[in-house]
Design a protein that fits this description.
Shape: elongated
Structural class: mainly alpha
Largest sheet: none
Number of helices: 9
């Protein structure tokens, strides 16, 4: 008999499959770079020369440039601009106004430096009126004049304070602060008067039974040296209203 091995089925043939090729990827395209059409020739950044703050553009008229300089307190520069304007009618009119102001202001400054308070105040007020006619608005020059007026009221207030005329001192210190709200010397003296008002009120309180007339006199003085919002003003007023 033939050997049993002869009748065995042949071993299955395993086909060697070729490695599966992945599907080809899309062709990677390079990033698209759009070429924009060349722009018109690049212009350099425009740098405008601006005038100093408070000054009009250089293209402004001589009148406007001089007016801006004057309002800023640059009197001599303003006059130089007007002088260079020649026969310009507006410049001539402005020059005449500034000349009037300059004359009065120079005299006022002389009185101010000498601390002749009454004439200084009068002439500074006059100069302020001329300045307003030139500019028609509040300017740095207006602030300068107001500070000088405040100084003169302060000097008058000190004189009254030393003479024990506290009511007049109060009026002057208050006027100084109204003209120049940050006028520190006057603010300090107003604080001193508030202390004085307290003393006067307490004196009146002590006298209310023994010397009612003396009490009323002191309480009336309180009303003259502090504002109505002050605590001792209110108390003094209440006592004056309650006394016969």
């Amino acid at each position: 008999f033939p050997s049993p091995t002869l009748f065995r089925s042949p071993a299955p043939v395993v086909a060697e499959t070729a490695p599966r090729e992945s599907s080809p990827r899309r062709e990677e395209r390079p990033a698209r770079v759009e070429e924009r059409p060349a722009r018109a020739e690049e212009r350099p950044a425009r740098v405008e020369e601006r005038p100093a703050r408070g000054e009009p553009p250089r293209s402004a008229s001589a009148h406007d440039r001089a007016l801006a300089l004057f309002a800023d307190g640059n009197l001599s520069e303003a006059l130089s601009v007007l002088d260079a304007a020649g026969d310009d009618r507006e410049a001539k009119i402005l020059r005449a106004k500034i000349d009037k102001f300059a004359k009065v202001y120079e005299e006022a400054n002389g009185e101010y430096r000498a601390k002749r308070t009454q004439t200084a105040i009068k002439q500074l007020i006059q100069a302020k009126a001329f300045e307003s006619k030139v500019t028609g608005r509040r300017t740095k020059l207006t602030d300068e004049i107001d500070r000088k007026l405040a100084d003169m009221h302060y000097v008058q207030g000190i004189s009254s304070y030393l003479n024990q005329d506290f009511a007049e001192a109060y009026r002057n210190f208050k006027a100084a602060v109204a003209l120049a709200p940050g006028h520190s010397p006057s603010l300090r003296k107003l604080d001193d008067l508030a202390v004085k008002a307290k003393e006067l009120f307490e004196e009146g309180y002590r006298l209310k039974d023994s010397d009612p007339a003396g009490a009323r006199e002191r309480w009336r003085k309180v009303l003259q040296v502090v504002p109505s919002s002050n605590e001792h003003y209110k108390k003094a007023q209440q006592w004056l209203d309650s006394l016969p």
